Amino acid sequence: MLSAMSTMVLGGCSPAGLLNGASRLVGDSARLAGSGIPFGDDPRLKLDVWAPNRAPAEPLPVVVFFYGGGWAMGDRAEYGFAGRALAARGFVCVIPDYRLVPNVRFPAFVEDGARAMKWVADNIAGYGGDPSRVAVSGHSAGSYIAAMLALDPHFLRDAGADPKLIRAAALLSGPYDFYPFTENRGRDALANWPRPQETQPITFARKDAPPMLLMHGTADTVVQPRNSRALAAALTKAGAVAETRFYEGKSHIDTIKSLSPLFRGSTPALDDMIAFLARYDQAGA
């Protein structure tokens, strides 16, 4: 095991790729039910589907997971560890790619997420998933995309999907209230938009928003924990269901790496996610 991990590090594997490679060797058992499935015309618009090893007796709840990377990097193939973790617990998990900065700017990556959700609504039944029980999840910039899809209904509507498709959201270390843009990632991805408040998930907090779980490490210096506090407060004030989990002393990376079997004890994020989704008709095993 250690020699395999050393080979990946020496070969220049990214941190997410390292977690993914290791998870193939130890831990969660699931199958890649579909790989590189196109959901749009751009070469980037492909997705993977993870499912439990055993065919279900009835359709399973679905989680669409959006990875992070500052809207500028990332690849679905490196996040199989997240798909395996969720599939091993009774979900069908979809991991889409999306177009990246600098080739695109806001709102293109959110629109790509909406196209992926439309594909899920139309096709996930063929992979054992229940299109009436769809949740979203993600990490960092991926949590941003998931939050925008859950809160601003025009994205799903414009993609031809029902804005009520998303039943719940369980989000890791996401930026939801970060204008004015004070660092390059936000400026590069979003500062082009002439109405900056429309780029902020907190702007769209509303009473009928899907139930949301916002998870964050208190030592996160990449995306400040105040983002989760602020969005949860806005949702609660509006009358929506919002819960938070703050992991003492944990960093931006700790939350996502705890989905990998190698670091499962780093935070209880996976268990918190599963328990939350189970309460909103997304029951996992």
UniProtKB/TrEMBL annotation:
Gene Ontology molecular function terms on file: hydrolase activity
Keywords (A to Z) from UniProt: Hydrolase
Domain BD-FAE-like positions: 47-235
Transmembrane regions: none
Superkingdom classification of source: Bacteria
Protein name per the record: Alpha/beta hydrolase
